[in-house]
């Protein structure tokens, strides 16, 4: 099943089970048929990616994931390349499903040995006689931490040094968060079945990930309607707005940036750079008079609105009316980068967050002004919030660790309570809509780990809002381009201003034609 216009649907474990149940129960597709297709897809991946690995150890659990493993072993036996499989079983098998039991019987009838992993010595012996391990122990049904002998067995698989191919999910991974449940394997290849699970989308992996088409009907997917998607390159490219040949600077909108106090002028300048490099026709900085020389000399392409500050170099609540009037003359605004957290700045932000009548990106210090009160950010105008995990925790009145433990849930709550599009930054940035939709961004990595990269993102998002893009589309596209600009640079880091400078190249790279998928049942997943 290939991506839809929103990208790859990424169901939770419960949603995936509902899709399977609908296909089997309502549409009458035999579970054996789906299991057969799943196991053969994994065998295809082994043949394609590990053709020299002929001695394969398939480690099966007692659930349907183990049933898929039995099919893998049988399919490897049927291949003409001489692969030999051996099967070890982990867990208790008293309540094995009829489909799994039938495939176990077929495997034994074909002469493939199936043995219980009775202790670490047998497992160590089997690993010593193998070239590759297939992990078919746990799937989406895992709901509690892996402990005891099972945890020890997974640890032995991890320490074996052999290539690991996981069926559907790495054993021990939460299908909903991508985080370990006690202990989890770190495979070299993951063949996820039917659809990529939410946990695979949320956490970057070193593994090669393929989505196997096992014949799940689109009607079952439509009935369950997962609200989480990973934005594919094709879906992101479809969001790119046209740049007409007869256009002029006014065509692409005017952004007002409000931020940058004493000692933090760079934040506002980087937001302005991000807006210009993302295609805004004009950018103006709302500048305290004392800081105008800095702004004007460092970014000659931007204009300044000069605000009287009695020499303080700071913006305060007294400036709210004038800034709101200036914003109304523009097409979009950025509020917060480098603004500070003094009393005057907080009062200014609280006034402007609702007074600014154009679409606005609320970032950094502007978010901190609403700690514990995201409802205060509700506005009749479009708003995009761009917190990092610490800022999201302050907004929601919780700990950063709890945000990171359920990033999709945290972003969804923040969007619901604020009525805004929430962009929870981090590895695999999560974009959430107030109606519950989630878009996970696949671009970006270590190249974004530099101070100021978030300011560049805020400006880039405002540039897209200034072009009258819907806020949901602007947020998804802006985050994708920003991450892609990071990927085009050095992994070891760099300057945020250099990141801004790569935004046009990212735009062009995204606009380029996408290479076609290789034929077959396996589709690459970011």
Q: Could you explain the architecture of this structure?
A:
The protein has 526 residues and is of the alpha/beta class. It folds into two domains: 8-230, Rossmann fold (3-Layer(aba) Sandwich); 250-385 and 446-503, UDP-N-acetylmuramoyl-L-alanine:D-glutamate ligase (3-Layer(aba) Sandwich), CATH 3.40.1190.20. The chain has 21 helices and 19 strands. It has helices at residues 13-26, 31-49, 64-78, 98-109, 120-128, 148-159, 198-202, 218-224, 233-239, 265-277, 292-298, 320-328, 343-355, 365-368, 389-396, 400-405, 407-418, 453-466, 471-487, 496-501, 503-511, and strands spanning 8-9, 55-60, 84-89, 114-116, 132-136, 164-167, 189-193, 208-212, 228-230, 254-258, 282-288, 303-307, 332-335, 359-362, 383-385, 421-424, 430-432, 438-440, 522-525. Strands 1-9-18-17-16-15-14-13-10-11-12 form an eleven-stranded mixed β-sheet, with helices on both faces. Strands 4-3-2-5-6-7-8-19 form an eight-stranded mixed β-sheet, with helices on both faces. Strand 14, helix 14 (365-368) and strand 15 form a beta-alpha-beta unit. The longest helix has 19 residues, at 31-49. The radius of gyration is 26 Å and the shape is elongated. The mean pLDDT is 95.
Task: Briefly characterize the structure.
The protein has 526 residues and is α/β, with parallel strands linked by helices. The protein has 21 helices and 19 strands.
